[in-house]
Amino acid sequence: MTSLCGVCRAPATQRCSGCQQVAYCGRDHQRQDWKAQHRHQCRRFKVVRSDRLGRHLVATRSIRQGEIVYRDTPYAVGPKIANVPVCLGCNRNLVPLLAKAALQAQRFYECSRCGWPLCGVECEDVEQHRAECGVLAGTGYRPNIRPHPADPERRESAYCVIVPLRVLLLERTAPERYAEVQGFESHLEQRLASPLYGVLRSNLVPFVRTVLGLRQYSEDTLLQVSAILDTNCYELRQPERHVKVRALYPLGAMLSHDCRPNTKHYFDDRLGMVLVATVDIPEGAVISVSYTQPLLGTLQRRLALRQAKCFDCACDRCTDPTELGTHVGGFRCPSCRQLHHHQSKGTGSASWVVPCDPASYRSPWRCQNRKCSYQERPEEYATRCERLQAELLALDRTEPAVYEAFLVRHEPTLHGWNAYVLQAKYALTQLLAGRREQAPSDTANERRMVELCRDLLVVAERLEPGYGHFRTKLLLELAKALDGLRAGGVVLSEQEQQECRSAWDELERIAKTDPTVKAGRIAGDSRPLPS
Ligand SMILES: C[S@@+](CC[C@H](N)C(=O)[O-])C[C@H]1O[C@@H](n2cnc3c(N)ncnc32)[C@H](O)[C@@H]1O
């Protein structure tokens, strides 16, 4: 069918290259429409609905790796249901901002009108705080939020009212946004059965209706708003600015999850969410993000998604017993291992135990070797994971040697890419990076780093390919370690020099659309240093 010009309805000869969604008879009408409206509507995606994903985003044209898919402005930002003390003006954690002497004063700066803690007088009139301040000030209620130097991680539950209140106040300040938020997914029915919603029913509801006097909002509406926030908010982290809060974004609320996503996101200085394609996304493909951690096995990821976002993931990784060949959830078959031990040769040692049905929380686990009958019940597998998790958590987090010992201890029984092994290996890279600061020319340290990064990069490429954050961090550590070896007098092979050059080249490309990978310089090296 011939396309018609979006302005005059004459036969069209060209399409908008940005979205491929509208056509024009020529450049004049394209320019005219751009100025009049299209610049606000031109998008690389559209929102569609399916039975499995609900509403989600689909690419309306091919999107290149590294391209920014969209920038999204938040509708509401603020503390999580229970949060460490945070400034209601600028969202920064209050504790690290205070000098020791001030902490001993036992109080934070309090807003002169509503009494809630802020950084200082300069945050009293920040737009985010203005509307709520009037409502909070009128109540006479003052939260008892104080510094606890001995327990800086202590969370205050009084914060559970702030973001819901900010959403309710949109009804006055931005009614079209308020109406849009009411249409977001909530999973309220499922959430009402949880203990958290029991607590919200007895804390949040009377606070808003009785203390704040906002009686026009029924219990159902208030719990619905909470459930919308729990389903759609993103954790907004900017460690260098001491910001760790939650935020609701209109496009973010339409974005579906995949355990092998094709985008990543970061937050800009104005707390906007920027979505970047980590791989080439073909026209018609679902645009996905990951709501969870890549270094968890399928059972743990799916449980986390069910608990936080109320759905059962059925992506390619979740439905593959080997998790795309990585065996992140798997372990070595004890029976085949014994056989191997007795015969001291043969293929026994290479048999892995995998779930019979990865998409079931109650699946038994079975040896992949058809000749072996080894099985493990779901309870036994869960206990195995809990034990490993507890062991990992108990390690001294400052000491690389204890992580190395963990790896040696579990090498005979776990896959080299088992979730707990991966977590230990990744922790080791962080510790070795810290050591580099103290001992810059420790070549044994750098050699080990290179080995770990090469290994983890293979996993990262399978689970979060392309420009994903996990892979980017590893590329950076690999490049720095190879540079470190050279600086320490080691002669790199031709292959290693090429490996180092291509890592830096790729990091430069990633940095073009991801400012969290900042350009800098290593002393004595002319290459840009993402940090
Ligand atoms: C941020 S919202 C995304 C928009 C939502 N689909 C809608 O229609 O409003 C998150 C919710 O989308 C659904 N969802 C997202 N990714 C999914 C997936 N991979 N499989 C099934 N449901 C998914 C779940 O209901 C989840 O709680």
Automatic annotation (TrEMBL):
Highest taxon listed in the record's lineage: Eukaryota
Gene Ontology MF terms in the entry: N-methyltransferase activity; protein methyltransferase activity; S-adenosylmethionine-dependent methyltransferase activity; zinc ion binding
Residue ranges constituting the MYND-type domain according to the UniProt record: 5-42
Protein name according to UniProt: MYND-type domain-containing protein
Protein's organism: Anopheles atroparvus
UniProt KW keywords: Metal-binding, Zinc, Zinc-finger
Pfam families: SET, zf-MYND
Keyword Transmembrane: no
Domain SET: 43-292
